[in-house]
Amino acid sequence: MLALAALSARALAGWAAADGTPAVALDVFGDADTRAAARAWRAIGSASPPAIDGARLLAELRALADRGEAEAWVAGSGFEAAPALLMRAAAVLPLLGTAPADQARLADAPAFFAALDRCGIAHPPVVFAPPAGGGWLRKQARSAGGWGLTRRRDAAPGAYWQRERAGTPVSASFVANADRAVVLGLNRQATVEVGEHPFVFAGVCGPLDWPAVLTQAEHALAVLVPAYRLRGLGSLDFIVGADGVAELLEVNARPSASAALYPDIGGRSPLHAHLQACRHGVLPAPPRGPARGLRIVHARRALALDGAAAERIAAWPGAADLPPAGARFAPGEPVCTLEAAGADAAAVEAGLVRAEQDLLHSLETPR
């Protein structure tokens, strides 16, 4: 059996169930579909705000290892700022993915961007002290989902500043084996402003037919995969300017949300591709399929779900990450996810935006 740990393990658990792989889900939400897909579910942190409790994670992994119930574990989102926790957890139960020591090297922002410069990989300018003037974004190193991104100028531990660029946010989903990688597809990312965070991740849609950007992504991976021994599912985040130049923002060395756009990789799930690459170095052929998208529904105002509202979400077409009755959400917090497929990525994306507004209106309207 595998242990699947993340802020939300729903996608990982669903992939495991699709492959017939026994798995226990460890996350902070315990959504209904996560529990239904996994053999068991255990809480490893707080859902509001979402955060993994390292002590609880280690305790659950140790219990699984002591009972012989899990042979290894896979880490999803939530560990970006915690390479030391990854190292401790990997000592309890083997981690299938990029090694914690290599993830720690990725988290060293000054060394990482210096390496990009040496290799000729374009990226927005970065500085490591508060800059003068505007036009900069403060980033918390290895944060996830845009929650570590603000326009603040005051210093903070682990922070650096990156020049804000106009353009299209794009990710390249990949599978790697520490030597080379296969790009699953290019995806357009959507963001929303939540409080002081101007670019919170709100969804993704793909694949995009953008050959010039694909070439740039493949070049970056040809350098980064062997340099950082990237293994398994991951993604590169870019900002693509009007001139078509893709500037690299960061590397996500773990299964990311965009992998859900490629549910059929050689007849198996993205988790199977991840395990094959990590265990055997085997990479899949690039998948083919319809355009797909997902949209994270963020509360526009405080919400409290009664039983009827929870049932309404569960019955909504394409709804996932299903919250239970009694769940409460502050403005800006994620309520659920909507997923859809179609012939055209732009049409899928537009349909998801409409569906999000309709669902929120339904939840906000007294009945």
What would your notes on this structure say?
The protein is α+β, with helices and mostly antiparallel strands and 367 residues long. The chain contains 10 helices and 20 strands. The chain has an 8-stranded antiparallel beta sheet with strand order 15-14-11-12-13-16-20-18. Strands 3-2-1-6 form a 4-stranded parallel beta sheet, with helices on both faces. Strand 8 (136-140) and strand 9 form a beta hairpin. It is globular and about 55 Å long. 46% of the residues are buried. The mean pLDDT is 94.
Helix content: 25-40%
Please state the CA-atom Rg, rounded to the nearest Å.
Answer: 20 Å
Through-space gap between termini? 44 Å
CATH architecture group name of the largest domain? 2-Layer Sandwich
The number of helical segments is 10
The count of strands amounts to 20
Structural topology:
Blueprint lengths: L1 E4 L4 H10 L3 E5 L4 H6 L2 E4 L1 E3 L2 E3 L1 H13 L5 E4 L7 H10 L7 H7 L2 H11 L6 E2 L8 E5 L8 E2 L8 E5 L4 E10 L3 E14 L2 E10 L4 H18 L2 E10 L5 E7 L17 H11 L10 E8 L4 E2 L2 H9 L3 E2 L7 E2 L4 E9 L2 H20 L3
Parallel strand pairs: 1-2, 1-6, 2-3
Antiparallel strand pairs: 4-5, 7-10, 8-9, 8-10, 11-12, 11-14, 12-13, 13-16, 14-15, 16-20, 17-19, 18-20
